C-alpha cells in the first residue's frame, strides 16, 4: 500500500539514505506498525549505532543498513537494488544526506544536489510499474537555504535551491502521475544537529552565521520530524515544498 492513497499507518518499507529523519519512526504515534527500513550513511559508526538502537527497539528483521556514499553512482545503485530485493517493493525514499562546505564546494554540490538526483533516479526506477514497482513517495530534504539567499554559505544555498527545483520539476512530470510516484521537499531552518558544528573554512563567515542563528533560533529535531510526518501523511500533495521554522510549518509551493 502507498502512503499517498491510504493516509495513516501505511508505512511498510523505507529505503532511507538519511541520518536524523529516521527519528520519525520513534516519534510518530500513528506509525504504530514498524515498517521495514534500510538506513544508509557514509559514516559506518553513525549507521551501526543507529541501527543497533533501532533493532533493539523494533526487532532485528525490521532494520537493514548499508554504508553508502551518495557521491558514488555504483554504491547508490547497489543500495537500492539490495533494498528492493529484500523488501520486494519500496514505498518511501528519503534523500537526506547533506554537508556544509564552502571550501570544498564541489563536494558540497555533489552530496547535496547530485546525491539527491542519484537517489531520486533510483527511487523512480524501482517504483515504476514497468519495473515491478507500484509507485511510492520520494522526499528530498533541502533547507530554507533552498528558498532564501544565505550569504555565508552560497554553495550550500545553491545546492539546496537545486534540490527544490529538481523536486518540483519531477513532481510535474506526467510519468510520475501515471506511476503514482509522489515527490515532496522539506525545507527546515536551523535544527540542532551535527551539521551546525562547522569548522574553519566550511562557512564564509562563522560570525555572520552565528548572529543570524541567534536571531532565528534553533529548532529541535522533533519539530522537523513532526513536519516531515505531516508532509508525507497529507494525501495527493505531490510537488509540495514545506518550510519548517520555529514559527511553524508552511506550504511554500504546491508544484
Ligand atoms: N540541521 C539543520 O540546521 C538543517 C539541516 N538540513 C539538511 O538536513 C539534512 C540532514 O542533516 P542533519 O541531520 O541536520 O546533519 P548531520 O550532519 O547530522 O547529518 C548529515 C548526515 O549526512 C551524512 N553524509 C555526509 N556525506 C555523505 C555522503 N557522501 N554519503 C552519504 N551520507 C553522507 C553524514 O555522515 C551525516 O550522518 C541535510 O541534507 C541538511 O542539509 C536542512 C536544514 C537545516
Ligand atoms: C551554521 C550553518 C550550518 C548549516 C546550515 C544549515 O544546515 C541550514 O540548512 C541552513 C539554514 C538556513 C536558514 C536560513 C534562513 C532561516 C530563516 C528563519 O528561520 C526565518 C524565520 C522566520 C520566518 C517565518 C516564517 O515565514 O515561517
UniProtKB/TrEMBL annotation:
E.C. designation(s): 1.1.1.141, 1.1.1.232
A family per Pfam: adh_short
PANTHER family noted in UniProt: 15-HYDROXYPROSTAGLANDIN DEHYDROGENASE [NAD(+)]
Record key words, sorted: Oxidoreductase
Top-level taxon in the UniProt lineage: Eukaryota
GO CC, one annotated term: cytoplasm
Annotated protein name in UniProt: 15-hydroxyprostaglandin dehydrogenase [NAD(+)]
Gene Ontology terms, MF aspect: 15-hydroxyicosatetraenoate dehydrogenase activity; 15-hydroxyprostaglandin dehydrogenase (NAD+) activity
Organism: Pinctada imbricata
Broad class of enzyme this protein falls into: oxidoreductase
Database matches in SUPFAM superfamilies: NAD(P)-binding Rossmann-fold domains
Enzymatic reactions: prostaglandin A1 + NAD(+) = 15-oxo-prostaglandin A1 + NADH + H(+); 14-hydroxy-(4Z,7Z,10Z,12E,16Z,19Z)-docosahexaenoate + NAD(+) = 14-oxo-(4Z,7Z,10Z,12E,16Z,19Z)-docosahexaenoate + NADH + H(+); resolvin D1 + NAD(+) = 8-oxoresolvin D1 + NADH + H(+); resolvin D1 + NAD(+) = 17-oxoresolvin D1 + NADH + H(+)
Purpose: Catalyzes the NAD-dependent dehydrogenation (oxidation) of a broad array of hydroxylated polyunsaturated fatty acids (mainly eicosanoids and docosanoids, including prostaglandins, lipoxins and resolvins), yielding their corresponding keto (oxo) metabolites. Decreases the levels of the pro-proliferative prostaglandins such as prostaglandin E2 (whose activity is increased in cancer because of an increase in the expression of cyclooxygenase 2) and generates oxo-fatty acid products that can profoundly influence cell function by abrogating pro-inflammatory cytokine expression.
Entry similarity comment: Belongs to the short-chain dehydrogenases/reductases (SDR) family.
Amino acid at each position: 500500500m502507498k502512503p499517498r492513497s491510504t493516509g495513516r499507518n501505511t508505512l511498510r518499507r523505507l529505503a532511507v539514505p538519511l541520518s536524523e529523519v529516521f527519528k520519525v519512526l520513534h516519534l510518530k504515534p500513528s506509525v504504530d506498525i514498524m515498517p521495514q527500513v534500510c538506513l544508509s550513511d557514509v559514516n559506518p559508526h553513525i549507521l551501526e549505532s543507529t541501527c543497533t538502537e533501532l533493532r533493539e527497539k523494533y526487532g532485528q528483521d525490521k532494520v537493514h543498513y548499508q554504508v553508502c556514499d551518495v557521491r558514488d553512482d555504483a554504491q547508490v545503485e547497489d543500495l537500492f537494488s539490495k533494498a528492493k530485493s529484500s523488501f520486494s517493493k519500496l514505498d518511501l525514499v528519503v534523500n537526506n544526506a547533506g554537508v556544509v562546505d564552502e571550501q570544498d564546494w564541489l563536494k558540497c554540490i555533489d552530496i547535496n544536489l547530485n546525491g539527491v538526483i542519484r537517489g531520486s533516479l533510483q527511487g523512480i526506477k524501482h517504483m515504476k510499474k514497468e519495473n515491478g514497482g507500484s509507485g511510492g513517495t520520494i522526499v528530498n530534504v533541502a533547507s530554507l537555504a533552498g528558498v532564501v539567499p544565505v550569504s555565508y554559505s552560497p554553495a550550500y544555498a545553491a545546492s539546496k535551491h537545486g534540490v527544490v527545483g529538481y523536486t518540483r520539476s519531477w513532481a510535474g512530470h506526467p510519468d510520475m502521475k501515471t506511476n503514482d510516484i509522489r515527490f515532496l521537499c522539506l525545507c527546515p531552518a536551523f535544527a540542532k544537529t551535527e551539521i551546525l558544528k562547522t569548522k574553519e573554512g566550511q562557512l564564509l563567515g562563522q560570525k555572520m552565521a552565528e548572529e543570524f542563528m541567534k536571531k532565528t533560533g534553533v529548532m529541535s529535531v522533533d519539530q522537523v520530524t513532526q513536519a516531515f510526518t505531516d508532509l508525507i501523511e497529507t494525501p495527493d500533495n505531490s510537488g509540495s515544498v514545506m518550510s519548517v521554522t520555529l514559527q511553524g510549518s508552511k506550504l511554500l509551493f504546491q508544484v
